[in-house]
Specification:
This protein is mainly alpha-helical. It contains 11 helices and no strands. InterPro entries: CotB-like.
């Protein structure tokens, strides 16, 4: 049974990361449609604003509650997030809520002492329900969209694999919130097998998306992205083998940790290059920052896994 303290902190930390990810998924979908599909544009925009509102409420509850490890990990915001949002808003005309980023960047961690604990617990329970309802709707939207794209009934500039990729992330988020609502004790270190299989696949696909969205003249970056894709494909297979106890999970964790450090550095340099207009591509700057934050999130988890295995 999850304690009240852990329920509050883990819920808010999860939303600080994933609510931002979900709102950006909605943004990427929104800007990928043609004018013919204005109904899809409107629906994606509504989800984006819904997650904006959710994230705002989460931020107001998180001051002095969430851990410094999460706030300092780079998974909440990065040094590039604000500029990436401004550039992406400029390119698309979509009004991105940059004020959220400014407030989020100033969050501090401390004790629960300043909070009415019982009242905060009720608010977090309600936030979790809102997150599940919103995410359930977004999952339905992504599922329909993927089916429409695969059957050639609609065109979007987003790869079918990218739609499938963000659909899996939404389902993963929903599952984690649902477990928190059920007060299940989530021992991250015990879930190394499942988490490493999931996130290694995500890292592999990020590499392939980057590879495919770079200008054909960016040979060096394309080759680097391609190599990361192959590396994380191998790590995904190894994580699955570890689940079957064919190889020790500690080996996969160590290899994944080093690979994730490297790809995070690559993504940081890439995001900076996009923001400063030094890379030729069709990558919207916020997508670079988005993948950077996911690498930082995974890196924090891997450090927990390794510590548990020592």
């Amino acid at each position: 049974m999850l304690s009240s303290n852990k329920f509050i902190r883990q819920s808010l930390e999860l939303h600080l990361f994933f609510a931002r990810i979900m709102k950006e998924h909605s943004f990427f979908l929104e800007i990928g449609f043609t004018p013919k599909n204005s109904n899809y544009i409107d629906e994606a925009d509504a989800f984006r604003m819904g997650f904006d509102n959710l994230l705002y409420d989460v931020i107001t509850m998180s001051e002095g509650v969430v851990s410094s490890d999460v706030l300092q990990s780079g998974e909440v915001v990065t040094p590039f997030t604000l500029e990436a949002e401004k550039a992406s808003a400029y390119f698309t005309g979509v009004k991105i809520a940059t004020d959220l980023t400014k407030v989020e960047a100033e969050l501090m961690s401390s004790s629960f002492s300043r909070h009415n604990h019982e009242e905060l617990e009720k608010k977090v329970f309600a936030i979790n329900n809102r997150a599940m309802e919103l995410t359930r709707g977004l999952i339905r939207f992504k599922t329909v969209l993927l089916s429409e794209v695969l059957s050639c009934r609609i065109f979007t500039v987003n790869y079918p694999l990218l739609i499938d990729h963000i659909l899996r992330e939404a389902k993963f988020y929903f599952m984690l919130v649902q477990r928190l609502q059920n007060r299940e004790e989530i021992h991250i270190e015990r879930e190394a097998y499942e988490q490493e299989t999931f996130w290694n696949r995500i890292m592999a696909e990020h590499s392939k998306f980057i590879r495919g969205l770079l200008d054909p003249t960016e040979d060096e970056l394309i080759n680097t992205a391609n190599n990361f894709g192959h590396q994380f494909d191998i790590l995904t297979r190894e994580a699955k083998e570890a689940m079957n106890q064919s190889i020790p999970i500690s080996k996969v964790t160590d290899e994944s940790l080093e690979a994730t450090k490297s790809i995070r550095s690559f993504k940081a340099q890439g995001t900076q290059g996009l923001v400063e207009c030094k890379i030729k591509s069709i990558i919207i700057p916020l997508l670079g920052d988005h993948t950077l934050r996911e690498a930082s999130h995974y890196l924090r988890l891997l450090k927990i896994f390794r510590k548990a295995e020592d």
